[in-house]
Amino acid sequence: MTSGTAPVDARADETPAHGWRTFLIVWSTQTFSVLGSSLTTFALTVWLTQSLYPGAGQESQLSTALSLLGLAAGVPLLAVAPIAGTWVDRHDRRRTMIAANFGSGAACLVLAAAIATGHLQPWSMVVLAALLAMCASFHGSAFDASYRMLVPAPRLGRANGMMQMVWSISNIVSPGIAALLISLPALAARGLVGGPAGAALRRVHDGAALAIGVDALTFLVMASVLLALAIPSPRRTDLGASGRPAPSFRADMLAGLTFIWRRRALLWLLAAFTLANFISSARIVLLPLIVRFNLAADSSARGFTFQAALAFLTTALSVGGVTGGVLVSAWGGLKRRRIYGVLVPMAISGTAQTIYGLSPWLALTAAMALTFSLMIPVLNAHSQTIWQTKTPREMQGRVFSVRRVLAQGTGPLGLIVAGLLGGALNPGLVMAGMGVALALFCLVQLFNPALRHLEDA
After folding, report:
1. pTM
2. In a 3-state reduction of DSSP, which class is residue 235?
3. Lowest mean per-residue pLDDT among 188-192, 248-252, 430-434
4. Domain total for the chain?
5. Of 186, 220, 246, at which residue does a domain stop?
6. Which pLDDT band holds residue 8 (cuts at 50, 70, 90)?
7. 167 and 42 fall within a common domain
8. For residue 186, what are the contacts with CB-CB under 8 A and spacing of at least 6?
9. 52, 85, 120, 359: which sits with the fewest CB atoms below 10 Å from its CB?
């Protein structure tokens, strides 16, 4: 057992002898942590819906609270990213992850205790959710920049596929686990859970506290595991006489943006994901509208209620994501010309989305949902590998944080545009139009010499 984190040469490409094994351990604990975080999101949604605003006349308060929860979980994540990315390039990344996990665990414990005692208020929920998002930003920046220090270059594609698989599995598994945990106190009260466990559960005021408590446990377990692992940080090449980075913190923040701005091929790659994330967020709004208006006749003819049809499509999306993650994990992705592993799947995704929007049949729509969600882990894994191999390891915190802000910052705009257009126009046509735009953009970029030769330099 060791906790050494001696810096290594950022320009070298070597990894520790047991780097892959260390990555597998971190990946395993990260999987449980992602599942735990999904439990908290689900539990807070249930708490708002069933405990705080259960009345028929409280739709406005509930809608506002859910929106505030979404903003608290999303805005700080991106707003803090440039600071977090700069921090992890200037400090020990392993310690940053440990501190972030302990911070997240503490915030979850406070959330769970407040719900269990009946003292949680909307304002305190928003504050704690924002704190969780900020901790997640620091942890994500440190983790994204760390596993390139552990994983040998030939295995990067497989490692990135495994990370993509985590999120897809969480989408399938977490709601069921959260629902079970939330229902345990009620089951115990009815005598369906006996013994000491049943007695303890009967004292729980709200089952949402139990689900969030499990999330707190996953954070604390992950922090404890990291204490026993060696995860090196790269040695920077611009150290001053004091042994600290010579540039100021502000200059370091700007360095990530400058690095991307001076590399046209990376700008084009970032533009593709900016568009893709804009369209992906729009799907969230358009999906229920399409089920309600475009697929209603076929769904009803086949005996599907609105809820059943929506669940059917959501399941197809989740299954496609898991399948894509498993595929790229087993395959390892392209070893050369990885840009084709980004643009071709993205073009397929856009084409599938076009058919999805135009289809009047539930089965065809589900098949297209599975297709475009299957492509997402494949293209994301190839993109991540490109960024990891083209960005110096000592700069990955800063560069990746800028990339995250620019690529994901269009998500809220996509939600707004989809809400406006989906309500004024046929939502299926809006979905199809966005799919056409994405497919055409990717097809054009296949002939972009800067992108095609991205990995040659």
Report:
1. 0.84
2. strand
3. 188-192
4. 2
5. 246
6. very low
7. yes
8. 207
9. 52
